[in-house]
Amino acid sequence: MKDGRKDWAALAKMPKFVELHRRKKAFLLTLWCLGSIMFYLLPICAGYAPEFMKVKILGRLNIGYFFCLLEFAMTWAIAIIYTYKSNTYFDPLTKEVLAEITQGVK
Question: Which of 16, 28, 53, 91 could be joined to 64 by an S-S link, Cβ 3.0–4.6 Å?
Answer without folding.
Answer: 53
